[in-house]
Amino acid sequence: MPDRPGPGFRARVGPPSRRTRVLLLTAGVLAVLFLLFVMFAGLWTDWLWFKSVRYSSVFSSQLWTKAGLFGVFGLLMAVIVGANIWLAYRLRPPLSAMSVEQQSLDRYRMGVAPYKKWLLAGVSLLIGLVAGAAASGQWRTWMLWTNETSFGVKDSQFHLDVSFYAFELPWYEFLLGFAFSAVIVSLLVSVLVHYLYGGLRLQGPGRRASAGAQGHLAVLLGVFVLLKALAYWLDRYALAVKSGSYKGVDGWTGLRYVDANAFLPAKTILFFVAIICAVLFFLTPVRRTWAPALIGFGLMALSAVLIGGVYPAIVQQFQVKPNEQAKETPYIQKNIDATRQAYGIADSQTQQYTPKGSTTQDALKPDAQTIADIRLLDPNVVSPTFQQIEQQRSYYAFPQTLDVDRYGTGVLAQDTVIGLRELNLNGVQQRNWINDHFKYTHGYGAVSAKGNQVNNLGQPVFTESGLPASGTLGEYQQRIYYGENTKTYSIVGGSNKEIDYTVDSGDKTYQYTGGSGVSLNNPFTRAAYAVKFAEPQMLYSGAISDGAKVIYDRTPKERVEKVAPWLSIDADPYPVVQDGKLVWVLDGYTTSDGYPFSSKTTLGDVTKDSLTDQRGRTLTAANKVNYIRNSVKATVDAYTGEVTLYQWDDADPVLKTWMKAFPGTVKGRSDIPATLMPHLRYPQDMFKVQRDLLGQYHMTDANSFFNGTDIWQVPVDPTTNTGAVQPPYYLTVRMPDVPSASFSLTTSFVPSRRDNLAAFMAVSADPGPEYGKIRILKVPGDTGTLGPGLAQSKFNSDPEVARQLNILKNGGDSDVEYGNLLTLPVGGGLLNVEPVYVRGRGAKYPVLQKVLAVYGNDNVAFENTLEDALKKVFGAATSGAPTTPTAPTTPTTPGTPTPTTPPSTTDQALQKALQDAQKAFTDGQNALKNGDWTAYGTAQKALQDALNQAAAAQQRTGGSTPSPSPSPSATP
Questions:
Q1: What is the CB neighbour count within 10 angstroms for residue 357?
Q2: How many other CB atoms sit within 10 Å of the CB of residue 736?
Q3: Per residue in 148-197, pLDDT tens?
Q4: Contact 530, 549 (CB under 8 A)
Q5: How far apart are CA 555 and CA 565, in angstroms?
Q6: Which of 3, 105, 293, 337 has its CA 20 to 30 A from that of 353?
Q7: 3-state SS class at 338
Q8: Distance from first CA to last CA of the chain, Å, rounded?
């Protein structure tokens, strides 16, 4: 038996004491207040951040739009549902039938009676909150609809402006979906109320539904069918943007023969059938019978199956399949034309190019600049080299993939590999909150190297190096508070002494004066950020002095995405030194998935390549798109964090629409600084999307497209083992139909499931009249021209190459790393060049040891320098022909810039030609600044004439040709 309690024991029975109730109530109130403060802190800190970067209008526009949609549609849903609940209650029968069922329901009716008003309000409010939250997510759709701009282009089926499909149709579909939701929810709750109060019965004698319940539900069903009629009507237009799979295109979009000749008329017929059926439901309360309405609804359902399903299947089977090519060709042509227009590839130029196996001196002369600027430094391989030679301190680091830009003026302009020495907290030896957020706050300086040279140790020839950096880039603010790898917050300003950089004599300190960040003087603001960063020390730390500010969201990509949430941002920001500042340049894309007949593509998939994990991925609110424009160029100051958006494509209607929605956030194209303009380039992710589409859409004839006899694909990168496709490369290259070389973005194609070269593609990447011009060299299939994979196999299978590679590997003590395999149209043929790096066991970075080259299909070279390799593959044609500048004979001391050797000017004619070239370059820059493309073109021609004269004069003196830059797009 259990022990009994003693005589003094008293069991406590009854409600808790007053003190306990007060404590529980206080704890509950505090918990609610804390949760409310956490939610408010996120909103408040966002507002402060937007205010600090001077884009508060973006925050307020989004906030008020979301709040407005939430309030309007939430209230509308609550009113509709509440009104139907109230109406169902009012229409309840005065007396309940005597049955077991009703007796059971009496208990629920009695339980609900005291709270029916509260239940009505509570249910309506809850459903309204859910609907409002869903509606607030449609803020982009609302803004596009209310600020719509015409495309000036009409679709080929309904002859409506593209803006109807891009801006209007999505909003109408949302409204229709909302209406369907309101009717369905109202129908469900009405049925429940009618059942609860006896309007609907499952048991007992007499009618199963009262007259009031029948009328109420009939009207709701009538509204539902009427909405279905509207859906059928909108479905007609939605056929133009319907996506599926056809002819190997997963995102094929637009009407085909069966859509235009079966589904389209079927939708029209079903529209009228649904209208008639809705009328029958509306007449049900009058006629007091459900029979006509139910018969009509049944006929509508049968019509949907027969007209909307069976009939199109019959048309497809017995009309389309027996003669599919003839039936589908007109619709394929519509898809081709719309897709090429929507992706900006309609003006791409294709020409036949039959590569020669050998060349001559005269054939090589026009390609002097292409040869002189062949890039030996692979920006994806030499990052460890920059890191080892130029890191200087363990708390600095370079990105995995460096960038390629153009620096220099006139004839001295050249491709340059550049990287920033960013902060790397993982290299800080003493990690604590103060060091991480107060002391180590920024990186320091840019490091650049010539793209076409290495020294005799196989290391980069630096043009900007050291700490602080010095060299050819001039004076600029070198501190990097905002960078690709700067992902934590820092507290700067006030009396905080940051570690600027370290020299042998000790640490140099610095106080930030950039002006960015949010002030922490207000205790309330400090509390909000303590919640945001989950860091309670921000509340009481004495290290935060008066004037201190917190800076965060410091990567260029997230800053631009935040101030322009309607943009998709290119995955590869790149740094530029201009006007004494170090800025990040980013490309922004406007997209749409509502361009009729244009096939859809998934940005995240088509922009993947062998470097995706190193560069990052393109992010977009709507990943599946069928229209894209590089409409915005954005900059982020690496010191102040200032974000500036410039309108680049002034004809893009999507950008114009967003500029109406967020007025004053995007500056005009004329506001782009003249010193920044030469550094702007054609973006990689845009190019990847276009090259993916051109794999099939280079075929502009519908019959060829239908047969699919000439499908291309991007080759697998042969220099890696990932199996991913080859990335595009920035190169200075001359296409055969233009007189001079220009900075371009290039790629190659191979036929589907084959490895020989199908085509070479380049787009002019320099700002100017030719910017964005896509040129494709189509190679005949019977030539067996080497694609990248075959070129790599050619290298690997060559006995001499294999022997030397074994020597380089030194019995396994060294690793061989292949650089980018470049394909270039030179001298009437195709030249493949690949730098070969060697990393010894225990070495921290690779060095360039050899250069592989093949011209045609047989001439293979594996030499110590590019010049020797070209001499071998070109043979006698190199006599007097321009070659890559000779590397210095002495190694470059780390931290010391390598002087640039000017071209010889011993001949007076050569000197005059170079002066004329410099004058033409200056004239071109002024024209570029003023937006005068006519004057720019005249200056371009004058520059080319001067460079040709310089080349002729130099040849007469027996020297090497200077490195001309026909596209004057480099910055001093």
A1: 14
A2: 13
A3: 999 999 999 999 999 999 999 999 999 999 999 999 999 999 999 888 88
A4: no
A5: 15
A6: 337
A7: helix
A8: 99
